[in-house]
Amino acid sequence: MNLYCISHNYLYETEKLLFLFFPLEKNTVLRDFTEDSGNYFYTEIINNDETVIFKSSFSYNGETVSDEKVIKSENVTDEEYELLSLAYPLLKKLCGFAPEWGMLTGVRPSKLIMNKMLETDEETAKNYFINHFFASPEKTELALSVAKAEIEIIKEIDEKSFSLYVSIPFCPTRCSYCSFVSHSIGTDSAKKLMPEYVNKLCDEIVFTGEKAKENGLKLTSVYWGGGTPTTLSAEDLNRVLTAIEDNFDLSNCTEYTVEAGRPDTITDEKLYVLKKHNVGRISINPQTFSNSVLEAIGRKHSAELTIEKYNSARKIGFDCINMDLIAGLPTDTFESFKNSVDKAISLGAENITVHTLALKRSSTIVTRNESDCVTEKDVSKMLDYAKKALVESGYHPYYMYRQSKALGNFENVGWCKEQKECKYNVLMMEEYEHILSVGAGSVTKLLSPGIEKIERIFNYKFPFEYISRFSELLEKKERISTFFKDYQ
After folding, report:
1. Which runs of E-coded beta strand occur in 180-267?
2. Stretch 62-79: mean pLDDT, rounded?
């Protein structure tokens, strides 16, 4: 589709809006308009001395709709919003549907509604979402519920609070939907990297612990992600866990999570190691309880193995377990997804995170086989069922985010039983706490007082680069200390 952006610099925002209606469409961006007989989306801003004119046209399958509005220059406070709110109804009219999140394209709708609620009140915040962004009442209520849960967690932190993130970028195999920088340990090159990777990771933990102490930071939570952290051997898990205990003050740490996401990486020996080091929360992620869907996405385990490893974790004493499910996986059906939700609930997982499949460019299912395709209507039905079943079973939503290229522009929601929220998920996603990160591909986030500025320090993405450029990485991370000195 031709995308015309005339006399304005809102290309990114305009493309995002168009994506809500055409998630798989490739666009050709043009800055000059000539007669166009094909499908196109046109936006223009004309600034005069006293007025600003906003114009938009949308042509699709031989039908064209257009609109414009003229606003006094002194009354234009947000050009981007005025342009997109003019264009959105045109897309909606010819496409014949309205995205449930309206014209919202950001990843953090709960943070947006939370800030509005804190500035005004709950009713004003709801009306703002529905009338300003055209979000549905149902999605508005979901965002509001999440915001209320997040407010309670944010109350507990201060300007010296931080969480530690540990990146283990290795997996047994690569899932077809995955876009993370993770190495399959099925390859010899990845296996060879792992010992030295663990050595460097422990060195970075020592360095980062020193920075935390130098600046009087207070550790509130630890979170291991990846990849799959339990691809490490029990011995290496023990090494890294011990390094953290030796280099960080854990006396104020109220939450310790390790993603043991792939059941085919879990052994009783590894679970005992985690338990010995006071890890209180783990993830055992089925993604689906359908064996045929697991095969379609490249997961090398069965639904039965997921249940077996879940039961093992319970016997060893884990009383907070998360399970991830994904709506929209290739070959999945509503009935199959319903069974997966019901199974996770029946097992009694304290956290159940329901994701929407995102068609990431670096995954292997960006171009989907039509016979495997789950429609956006199917995904909507799946998410509606998950919400209903979880609420009826005593779960509530506590965190939420949205990914680009998610089917139907839908969301990912963390659900939990009472008092079982994962605080790290909230503080990381909503960016209300410093995050000190170690390991390849991780990002340290430092927040200025009042969160007026967020500064990021990016670790090298790939394990081989992380290892070979480790001294350079530590030089970059010296910024942690100078950052806090800047704001003393």
Report:
1. 183-184, 218-226, 255-259
2. 96
